[in-house]
Amino acid sequence: MLISSNSSTASTSTGNVTKTDTTYKDDNMEIEITTGKASDSTYYVADIKLSSADYLKTALDKTPMVPI
Q: Where do Low complexity bias regions lie (predicted)?
C-alpha cells in the first residue's frame, strides 16, 4: 500500500477528520483505497468501515436510479 505524505486533519460536526490521498477517517467511518495490478490491468479496492449501518442507508436513499 502506498501512503501519501499529503495528509490533513480538521475538526467538523462529525469530529476530527484525517485524510490523505488514499485514506479518510472520521469518528464514524474509515475509508482506505488500495491499488493492485493483474496482467495488464490496474484495479482499485475500497475498504470501508462504518460505525453504524445507518451511514450505508444514507448513501443508498430512495432516489430512483436514472439510466445514463
A: 1-14
> Would residue 33 count as lying in a domain?
yes
Residue 66 lies in a domain: no
Radius of gyration of the chain (CA): 15
- For 20-55, write each residue's pLDDT tens digit: 999 999 999 999 999 999 999 999 999 999 998 877
**C-alpha dihedral, 43 to 34 to 13 to 64, nearest 10°:** 20
Task: DSSP letter for 55, please.
Answer: H
Amino acid at 41: S
pTM for the predicted model, two decimal places: 0.61
Q: Which amino acid is at 53?
A: A
